[in-house]
Amino acid sequence: MDGEQWLTSYQEGLREFGARAAQAQNALAGICATVTSRDGAVSVTVNPAGALQRLVLSERTEGMSRVQLAAAVLATARQAQGEAARQATDAVAPLIGADVEAMRMLRSHLPVEDGAP
Questions:
Q1: pLDDT tens digits for range 39-94
Q2: pLDDT at 117 over 60
């Protein structure tokens, strides 16, 4: 391969990487995760970073103590954060490769699901 062929190949690789990066950026921008507790009392929506965007408390919370309500909100938020993190990881997989060490490391830090709240 001569220098011109190498440069052409390199530029094509950069274009492909740029296209995958743009696709990942678009996918990340659209991520949000909404989870509702098993009993329907609490619904939480988070953004890709896991920040709370919306919290809905249904009438079912009226019979709950403050401690129970706080636990339900936190458990539901954790589940939504885990889902958003999984979506974000899936969005960047095409950019860095689904089966490379970096992706395995990212996935190893995802929360372990311990059941619905």
A1: 999 999 999 888 999 999 999 999 999 999 999 999 999 999 999 988 888 888 87
A2: no
Enumerate domains of the chain plus CATH numbers: 3-108 (3.30.1310.10)
Identity at 64, one-letter amino acid code: M
Nearest partner of 37 among 62, 58, 53, 52, judged by Cα: 58
Q: What is the pLDDT of residue 81?
A: 92
Q: 24 with 94: CB under 8 angstroms?
A: yes
CA distance readout (Å), 56 to 46, 75, 77, 82, 89: 12, 14, 11, 19, 26
Q: For the full predicted model, state whether its pTM sits above 0.90.
A: no
Crossing angle for the helix pair 3-29 and 66-96, to the nearest 10 degrees: 160
Dmax over Cα atoms in the chain, in whole Å?
76
